[in-house]
Design goal:
281 residues; alpha/beta; Rossmann fold; 2 domains; 11 helices
Length: 281
């Protein structure tokens, strides 16, 4: 895995778990960190006042040094929703984000920040509302046409370093199209790995990858609304990491990988969520 980590903070305390998680990931995968601090609503009259970023940076540097990771520090002025995507485009990164602490009225008027960031950032995004460490259980959502492969690849790397168990999950939504593959999936949803369907092949391939890496992996399938079933599975089994693909790679299986699905899950889940766009080739 080539990308280094771009960890972001606007000084809000809720971003600290993402710094902790990013530090662990950089140490585990031997990656460099760029910590981007965004100074928002800078008031010239208060230029000498103590800014929350100062405390976050001091704690972060101490954490980086204790874990022996290489790091760079950078500060930019502006709105985080604009600064972070702009910085992301300047390098090959995995973007590590946390909640930005927006007031409820702002979220109502402009929507959740994570939704906007997922739309604007092309690189993999690791959203960390809570640092679930050590990493023991990973849930990878499999859509069936390979669009989750980018997220799956990163998750496998993380699992190898932590020896985490992997669950491959496919949601069978209510069948609204009458074609043979959909019928087969709907009929054999409890034994999809035995079917010659796109999702069956994707599940078998992912199992083979995990087996070759010496990992413990299993398959689950659920029926119903995609968001509701993913959330139910995550809650019932208390996973430490949830991985999904992205609809920006394709318009197929849109109900599974549309940004609002991932954003809705990110808004409600407490575990880290890894989202990555599919890239051909």
């Amino acid at each position: 895995m080539k990308p280094d980590l771009l960890i972001t903070t606007n000084g809000f305390e809720g971003t600290w778990p993402s710094i902790e998680y990013g530090t662990w990931l950089a140490s585990a995968l031997d990656k460099k960190i760029t910590l981007l601090g965004v100074t928002e609503e800078l008031n010239p009259a208060a230029i000498d006042d103590h800014h929350p970023l100062e405390d976050v940076f001091m704690r972060a540097v101490d954490l980086f040094q204790k874990n022996g990771v290489q790091y760079n520090l950078e500060v930019q002025n502006g709105n985080a929703e604009e600064v972070i995507p702009r910085k992301a485009k300047q390098g090959d990164y995995i973007i590590v984000l946390g909640p930005l602490g927006r007031p409820q009225i702002r979220r109502m008027l402009t929507g959740r920040s994570i939704r906007h960031l997922m739309e604007e950032i092309e690189q993999p995004i690791l959203y960390v509302p809570e640092a679930r460490l050590p990493l023991k259980k990973i849930l990878i959502c499999i859509g069936g046409l390979g669009y989750e492969v980018a997220a799956e690849h990163i998750a496998m790397q993380m699992a190898m370093k932590s020896r985490a168990e992997i669950t491959l999950l496919h949601i069978v939504p209510p069948m609204d199209l009458n074609y043979p593959t959909a019928k087969t999936v709907s009929k054999h949803w409890q034994n999809l790995t035995e079917t010659d369907t796109p999702v069956g092949r994707s599940l078998r391939q992912a199992l083979d990858v995990a087996k070759n890496d010496g990992l413990i992996a299993s398959v689950k399938a659920r029926q119903g609304n995609v968001v509701e079933e993913i959330m139910a599975e995550a809650k019932e089994e208390n996973y430490d990491l949830l991985c999904m693909g992205s609809m920006y790679s394709t318009n197929a299986l849109r109900q599974m990988y549309a940004p609002n699905v991932t954003a809705e899950i990110a808004n409600s889940a407490v575990c880290p969520i890894l989202s990555a766009r599919f890239k051909r080739g």
